[in-house]
Amino acid sequence: MRPHLRVVLPLLAACTNYSTGAARAAGSAQDCRFANPVASGADPWVARHDGWYYFVQSKDDAIWVYKSDELTQPTKHGVQVWAAPHNGWNRSNVWAPELHYLDGQWYIYYAAGKSGPPFLYQRSGVLQSAGDDPQGRYIDKGMLYTGNDVRSGAEKIWAIDLTVTRLGSQLYAVWSGWEANAATDRTPQHLYIARMSDPWTISSNRVRISSPTESWERGTELDLNEGPEFLQHGADVFIIYSTRESWLKDYRLGQLKLKSTGADPMDPGNWIKSGPVFTGTELVSGVGHASFTTSPDGTEDWIVYHSKVDTLPGWNRVIRMQQFGWRPDGAPDFGTPAPTGSPIRVPSGQCR
Question: What is the pTM of this model?
Fold first, then answer.
């Protein structure tokens, strides 16, 4: 965490109302504290661009993009930008959209299927903005190839939670997938990487870079790695991912680190695994599927993640966020989840 000193206005009584997407201290617009959770929902993705925060979510098989000048008010102004078609491979189960700005246009990566449950047909697709407005119209660019034979395009294999980043001049996709299509959705999930020739085309065969093999990754009902997200800090490249079962209280985050600057990310041996790097507490359970952004003035790093609302099995979840720092070895230090309702200083530069 980069050091930053500032004056914080006096704390007023905190109140939480995540049903309306708001969690902030009560009082005037100058309040400088908020409390978790900040919204309902799961699989949060936040993109910061030109002084705005864009928060994307799926609801009722549609994708919404929200725009806010306050990180802690992510659902201020929302627009539905896309809805699943009535027919086709992506007509239902729209999951975990991400919004990326690449080559002067916006792209939304998402998972969807043709039926389920059971969720046997999930694949990854991409939408391209028709203009430069992330809340404008999008063009469906189709399904991304996530199988083993990119030349023939044969047997597209189950894939969710696809994310992208550039390392050097090369664009890469990373996602959670099955080793092969299966007759049950209780199938182990692994992390795969592939090169892309443009934001809507995977141009290489996939390579598996992580499997749920460590004791802290092994679930009680299903072993999985999912929700991978790139995090870069200086010359260091990390993939922060979710592991154990998303519907159970022990969902958590693990970490892959690229061995060195310039190491080939397509070589599984160049990724070093460690974890867990973020786990729940007695007060906050089922933490996972994080994204990362910075404070308005760029001096602080923030993690945005979801948690369960209780310890019972299920997918009733809420969105949380908090500042994080960096360890002496360069790895992220996410700390522990802030308790529900606990006052937290807003991101630096937000309080005006």
Answer: 0.92
Architecture category of domain 31-345 in CATH: 5 Propeller (2.115)
Catalytic-role residue among 43, 98, 161, 217: 43
Active site residue 43: yes
Take residue 147 and report the two structure tokens written for it: 């199988």
Q: Please give the Cα distance from 63 to 56 (Å, whole number).
A: 7
Per-residue pLDDT tens, the chain, 352 aa: give them: 333 322 222 222 333 344 434 444 434 445 799 999 999 999 999 999 999 999 999 999 999 999 999 999 999 999 999 999 999 999 999 999 999 999 999 999 999 999 999 999 999 999 999 999 999 999 999 999 999 999 999 999 999 999 999 999 999 999 999 999 999 999 999 999 999 999 999 999 999 999 999 999 999 999 999 999 999 999 999 999 999 999 999 999 999 999 998 999 999 999 999 999 999 999 999 999 999 999 999 999 999 999 999 999 999 999 999 999 999 999 999 999 999 999 999 999 999 7
Residue from 70, 98, 161, 226 carrying the catalytic annotation: 226
Q: Where are the domains of the chain?
A: 31-345
d(CA 62, CA 111): 11
Residue 60 annotated among the catalytic residues of the structure: no
Phi/psi at 213 (5° precision): -110, -20
Question: Over the Cα atoms of the chain, what is R_g?
Answer: 19
Distance CA 71, CA 297 (A): 12
